[in-house]
Amino acid sequence: MLPRLFFIAALSALCLCTSCQYHAGHPGGNCTVCLESVSNQTDEPALGAQFRQAFQEALFRHAGVTMRDDDNADVSVSLRLTKVDSRSLARAELRGKRDREDDSNAYQTVLHRLLVDSDVVIIRNSDGKELFRGKVRGTGDMPRQADRNTALQPAIQQAANDIALQIVAYIQNDK
User: Helix or strand or coil: residue 21?
Assistant: First the structure.
């Protein structure tokens, strides 16, 4: 009987003193976020709406951070989308050395990188403290296609997702 009692006491102590730190009730550290404003100053009209959707999805995927549409949120986010830039990322050889007269048209860009710059302000509403103020850059890749808009939309969505995930990371680090 004594070994069994000792075993139960040791098992109870092990369960209570482990580093997993299980708690009863709701998880602590929940943070509510209000997307105060999204200003799109780029030439891509759909970028603002795609960012809003990407931000909601990023908050949904990260535990402990939820979206709230009123002024009672813990954190407010303001975003200004400022610039969209496209740069060539990869080139491919079109013709062999014997098939071309000069090297000026031997290569063609096959992959572009889309860069979206934004200015972000994250404010804790309880004390008005700025948690972050600065530039956040999102990237998206788009292959060369005959119809540029077909390749552009997924690249814009990738860039919006990238910006949203970076903002959520700032919020989670400072909550």
Answer: coil
Helical H runs in 25-88? 47-61
Q: How many domains are there within the chain?
A: 1
Alpha carbon distances (Å) from 15 to 12, 18, 127: 5, 6, 39
Average pLDDT over residues 79-108: 72
pLDDT band at 50 (very low <50, low <70, confident <90, very high): very high
The answer to whether position 143 is within a domain reads yes
Mean pLDDT, the chain, rounded, equals 82
C-alpha to C-alpha distance for 151 and 162, rounded to whole angstroms: 17
Instruction: Report yes or no on whether pTM surpasses 0.90.
Output: no
Whether residue 168 is contained in a domain is answered as yes
User: Using an 8 Å Cβ cutoff, are 138 and 162 in contact?
Assistant: yes
| DSSP H or E stretch at residue 81 | strand 75-93
Q: Do 106 and 52 form a contact (C-beta atoms < 8 A)?
A: no
d(CA 105, CA 143): 19
Residue 22 has pLDDT above 90, yes or no: no
